[in-house]
Amino acid sequence: MYWNNPRTYYWGKLEKLFRDDVDQQAEEAEFKFLSRKSGIDGEICWDWPTIEDRDIVDTANCFWDPALANLKSARRGRSYFVFEEQDKVQEKFAFLQKYGLHNG
């Protein structure tokens, strides 16, 4: 999920799609978001926040690729997940920051 203000991105779990008609593309989607954490050796890690972060967003802001969160470590009762697709998403995010959402 890409945000313009502030310019950032999040990994999320798709919960629902919203459309006016069965034959139409979904215009909005409800996501439950992970929060970004500092991992071991500066690696970007993600975890489910203690307070649920859920939002309905415009589907134009979504990266629609399946991704699997891999458990990197569990310490002090918290799990830290990494995504194999992290580098790919960071490249896409850098492109969007430079050229804008509708050029992606």
SSE arrangement:
Blueprint: E1 2-4, E2 7-9, E3 12-18, E4 28-33, E5 35-38, E6 44-47, E7 54-58, E8 69-75, E9 78-83, H1 86-99
Antiparallel strand pairs: 1-2, 3-4, 4-7, 5-6, 8-9
Strand/helix succession: EEEEEEEEEH
Q: How many runs of DSSP E, i.e. beta strands?
A: 9
> Low-confidence parts, pLDDT < 50 over ≥5 residues?
none
Strand content: 35-45%
Key features of this structure:
mainly beta, single chain, globular, 3-stranded antiparallel β-sheet, two-stranded antiparallel ribbon, 104 residues, 1 helix
In short, what is this structure?
The chain is mainly beta. It has one helix at residues 86-99; strands spanning 2-4, 7-9, 12-18, 28-33, 35-38, 44-47, 54-58, 69-75, 78-83.
Explain the overall architecture.
The chain has 104 residues and is mainly beta. It has one domain (2-97). It is 13% helix and 43% strand. The protein has one helix spanning 86-99; strands at 2-4, 7-9, 12-18, 28-33, 35-38, 44-47, 54-58, 69-75, 78-83. Strands 3-4-7 form a three-stranded antiparallel sheet, with no helix packed on it. A two-stranded antiparallel sheet has the order 1-2. A two-stranded antiparallel ribbon has the order 5-6. The relative contact order is 0.20.
